[in-house]
UniProtKB/TrEMBL annotation:
Protein name, as recorded: UPF0295 protein D3H55_13850
Pfam families recorded: DUF2614
Membrane-related topology note: Multi-pass membrane protein
Family that this chain belongs to: Belongs to the UPF0295 family.
Taxonomic superkingdom: Bacteria
GO cellular component: plasma membrane
Keywords recorded for this protein, A-Z: Cell membrane, Membrane, Transmembrane, Transmembrane helix
Organism (species): Bacillus salacetis
Membrane spanning stretches: 12-32, 38-61
Record's keyword annotation contains Cell membrane: yes
Annotated compartments: Cell membrane
Length: 120
């Protein structure tokens, strides 16, 4: 099965959004424990933590966005942001790289983890 790639910023955004939903689901779950105030409080706190966590992740995206390099996607012509050595266009998922040595190679997110893919 082919792995689906998407822009890192979009991925983190999806994660933050799902964290908010998880937080609300956990808090909603607490309602079923009305007879046990302690359990309900724990559920509410966990839900609150997930929502606070997502706020932190949103802040983190903001920080990452300022560090990301803005480029114009050669495929769709829209300005997008590249995080790390390789990333995908936020609009059309075109693989983009800032490293000339990786140009023309098959897209592989592992290039972000390796020190220098060219020395291989
Ligand atoms: Zn594009």
């Amino acid at each position: 099965m082919a792995k689906k790639y998407s822009s890192k910023i979009n991925k983190i955004r999806t994660f933050a959004l799902s964290l908010i939903f998880i937080g609300f689901i956990i808090m909603y779950g607490g309602i079923f424990f009305r007879e046990h105030p302690i359990v309900m409080t724990i559920f509410m706190l966990l839900g609150l933590l997930a929502i606070i966590g997502s706020t932190v992740v949103y802040f983190w995206i903001g920080m990452l966005s300022t560090k990301a390099v803005q480029v114009v996607c050669p495929n769709c012509g829209k300005p997008t942001k590249v995080l790390g050595r390789v990333d995908m266009c936020m609009y059309c998922n075109e693989p983009l790289t800032l490293d000339k040595g990786l140009e023309g190679k098959d897209f592989n997110e592992d290039y972000n983890k390796k020190g220098d893919a060219r020395s291989k």
